[in-house]
Design a protein that fits this description.
- There is one protein chain.
- The protein is mainly beta and about 650 residues long.
- The chain folds into four domains: about 200 residues, Jelly Rolls; about 200 residues, Sandwich (Jelly Rolls), CATH 2.60.120; about 140 residues, Immunoglobulin-like (Sandwich), CATH 2.60.40; about 80 residues, Sandwich (Immunoglobulin-like), CATH 2.60.40.3080.
- The protein contains five helices and 41 strands.
- The strands form nine sheets. Strands 1, 22, 25, 26, 27, 29, 31 and 32 form an eight-stranded mixed beta sheet that branches.
- β16 and β17 form a beta hairpin.
- The longest helix is centred in the first third of the chain and has 19 residues.
- The protein is globular.
Length: about 650
């Protein structure tokens, strides 16, 4: 954190020059996360020791990290310790749709240092469960291979040195129950592509019944910049190609698209947004869908002499809310170029008509490869990739997860700085509020005063004066083990808007660097994010470093003008117990009905009509995390109370 703040001070003169000329692009700085609240939801809640296997695994050992889609590595293969994180949003052009990331963030989302200074040392590790290699001899040709990458979508790792240890190491467990280092790579302050490494295990000390291997990363213990990707791990016998065994009969779904984002899986099925209100989508369904939906296909074979690989690709979409198929958006047969590692496969999401029903819905767009039985059976799961899109009550340019942060620069004088998104409506509407994703650092867990506002369009940029404002405070909690959701601030009365409008927040940065979540896997259209500088000038924004999307989501009301209850009235309601494992009781005056929203504002439970207004809420089994109980009063106003589920 200290390192990046020094960088910001050096950058400040350039930022001041950028804000001096109207309509110039402001360079908004970015940096690595000191914590990753989204990981906390995946942190294992049960006794890790109880998950250790009582019997060793048999060969082959294989994992290309296609499951889980996000979270801790599969405990059937990996020890439930070490902090490695599986996802498709951090590695650059991984071999398959997911990869394991080792960095300075623990499984609970907190940094290893938990302090304000920069320190270097061991960070995440990835250790296999015990594997039975007993009875094998060198004649069995036993080799371990894995693909690794230095750096990620976040940035370039620091240089390994005597004072800053930044490296990846492989350790092997011997029959004497000791760990021997078999391989290492010292960071050269450069990102690499994925490289295959093959390790010879044909020694008596490794061919025993309790063999394990472990990858250990070292780097900055205070953020997620020094990170390493691991993919396509294979330990097996009979690998006659030995140390040259780096190719596989496999065509897999990868991540991103050639020439676009190299991470994050399928692109959004929506043309501009990653989520939008269902009624706004219904007003122009065809024009809101993307004609460039797809992902890279990765050829892991590259044989000699080259032989084109025939495959079939099918893309389908399903309404998860009703569990009904909607149709096929892609159907193609092609030959994979054997001399090209990554090749894009795209189609049009607009091919399939989405029902324009009024209910909120979640759609899942799938892409499946059929290699006609020519690949290894164990690799079949990496033939499928999916992307969900939410049609609910909010607009978003992000996917709900932060890989980095963007920062409002500390100022000594001047106005409160503003960040605002442009939103294009398909029909008139009302803005109900704004969800923000603050990133807290160990050095700054203080309350943040903030004002949310709506502006009309003035010749392609926000107007000089907002049409509505609401001042509130973001809680000074810092990142919590239970995860930090978007924090929603609601206008006292929904704000009418039409055509093009802008919504965002203003915040005094005097003496403080204020950080907010940045999604690196998605981005907004050019000219859609704006900054009003401390000298009062509106300018469009581009990011310093990787582009991405500021995590800020306007909530719409579909022209419903019901107001929220006053703070004094809302304070009369409380929830007990809180945290809870399920059932919760509402303490306070009478209410008409209750609804439960998740951290992204999605409705996950509604009080049945027969139980409307009852104080006891029998909540269903849901993932642990932070939720909101929304109470609708008799006059239509609403009250929101936060609830922690364990």
């Amino acid at each position: 954190m200290t390192r990046f703040r020094t960088y910001c001070r050096l950058l400040l003169p350039a930022l001041l020059l950028a804000t001096g000329a109207a309509r110039a692009q402001v360079m908004l700085p970015s940096g690595p996360l000191p914590s990753d609240p989204s990981r906390a939801a995946y942190s294992l809640k049960i006794d890790r020791a109880a998950q250790q296997r009582t019997t060793a695994l048999s060969l082959p050992f294989f994992d290309d990290f296609t499951t889980p889609l996000e979270g801790a590595p599969d405990v059937r293969r990996w020890a439930p310790t070490g902090g490695a994180f599986v996802s498709n949003r951090l590695a650059l052009a991984p071999l398959t749709r997911g990869a394991a990331t080792l960095d300075g963030i623990k499984a609970n989302g907190q940094s290893y240092s938990s302090g304000t200074g920069v320190a270097y040392g061991p960070i995440d590790s990835l250790k296999s469960q015990p594997i039975d290699l007993s009875g094998l001899t060198p004649a069995d040709q036993v080799y371990l291979s894995f693909a690794w990458q230095a750096g990620s979508i976040i940035g370039t790792p620091n240089l390994n040195s005597t004072t800053s240890t930044v490296k990846l190491e492989l350790y092997l467990k011997t029959s004497a129950n000791t760990w021997v280092r078999a391989w290492f790579y010292n960071s050269q302050r450069a990102r690499t592509g994925f490289r295959q490494q093959v390790i010879d295990l044909n020694q008596a000390q490794y061919l025993h019944g309790d063999f394990q291997f472990m990858l250990v990363a070292s780097g900055n213990t205070s953020d997620n910049l020094d990170n390493w990707g691991v993919d396509y791990v294979l330990l097996d016998r009979g690998r006659s190609r030995g140390l040259a065994d780096t190719t596989f009969v496999d065509v897999a779904t990868g991540a991103g698209l050639v020439g676009s984002s190299p991470s994050g899986g399928l692109r959004s099925p929506l043309r501009r947004y990653t989520a939008m209100p269902v009624w706004q989508f219904n007003a122009a369904p065809t024009s809101e869908l993307s004609t460039n939906l797809g992902v890279n296909l990765t050829n892991l074979e590259l044989p000699t002499p080259p032989l084109p690989r025939p495959i079939d690709v099918t893309g389908t979409v399903r309404n998860l809310t009703t569990n009904t198929p909607l149709g096929t958006w892609l159907q193609a047969s092609r030959l994979i170029n054997p001399n090209v590692r990554n090749s894009p496969q795209v189609g049009s999401a607009a091919t399939v008509a989405v029902p324009t029903t009024a209910t909120a819905k979640r759609l899942r767009y799938n892409l499946v490869i059929n290699t006609n039985g020519l690949e290894m059976p164990r690799a079949v799961p990496n033939d499928t990739i999916s992307r969900d899109v939410e049609l609910n009550n909010y607009f978003a340019y992000d996917d709900g997860t932060a890989e980095a942060y963007t920062q409002i620069i500390a100022r000594s004088t001047g106005q409160a700085e503003v960040l605002a998104y442009r939103i294009n409506l398909n029909q008139p509407d009302h803005v109900g509020g704004l969800r923000l994703y603050p990133v807290y650092t160990p050095a700054d867990v203080n309350v943040r005063p903030v004002t949310i506002s709506v502006w009309s369009d003035d010749s392609g940029h926000p107007g000089a004066t907002p049409v509505a404002t609401k001042t509130a405070s973001l809680p000074g909690t810092g990142p919590l083990p239970g995860g930090l959701p978007y924090y929603e601030i609601t206008f006292d009365q929904p704000v009418p808007v039409s055509g093009v409008f802008y919504v965002g927040f203003s915040q005094p940065s005097t003496g403080r660097f204020l950080s907010y979540g940045k999604d690196l896997n998605n981005y907004f259209p050019p000219g859609y994010l704006w900054n009003r500088s401390y000298v009062g000038v509106w300018d469009s924004i581009r990011f310093v470093g990787p582009r991405g999307a500021l995590m800020m989501r306007p909530v719409m009301t579909n022209n419903v003008t019901t107001a929220t209850a006053s703070a004094r009235e809302a304070a009369a309601y409380s929830l007990y117990p809180n945290p809870t494992h399920g059932t919760v009781r509402v303490e306070g005056p009478a209410f008409a009905r209750a609804t439960l929203l998740d951290a992204l504002g999605r409705t996950v439970w509604e009080q049945p009509a027969a139980q409307a207004g009852q104080a006891t809420l029998p909540l269903p089994t849901l993932p642990p995390g932070v939720y909101t109980v929304r109470l609708t009063l008799a006059d239509g106003r609403t009250v929101g109370r936060r609830l922690m589920l364990e």
